[in-house]
Amino acid sequence: MPPVVRFAPSPTGYIHIGNIRTALLNWCVGKRVGGQFILRYDDTDTARSRQEYADAIRQDLIWLGMVPDLELRQSDRLSLYDTTTARLRAAGRLYPCYETEEELDRRRALQKARGLPPVYDRAALKLTDMQKAALEAEGRRPHWRFLLNHRRVEWEDGVRGPAHIDTSSLSDPVLVRADGSYLYTLTSVIDDIDLGVTHIIRGEDHVTNTAVQIEIFEALGGRVPVFAHHNLLTTLSGEGLSKRTGALSIRSLREDGFEPMAVSSLALLTGTSEAVRPVASLEELAKLVDLSRISRAPARFDPAEIQVLNARLLHETPYAEVADRLVALGVGGGETFWQVVRSNIVKLAETKNWWDVVTGPVASDVEDTAFLSRAAAVLPPGPWDETTWSIWTDAVKAETGAKGKALFMPLRQALTGLDHGPELKGLLPLIGRERVLERLKREF
Ligand SMILES: Nc1ncnc2c1ncn2[C@@H]1O[C@H](COP(=O)(O)OP(=O)(O)OP(=O)(O)O)[C@@H](O)[C@H]1O
Question: A single GO molecular function, which one (predicted)?
Answer without folding.
Answer: ligase activity
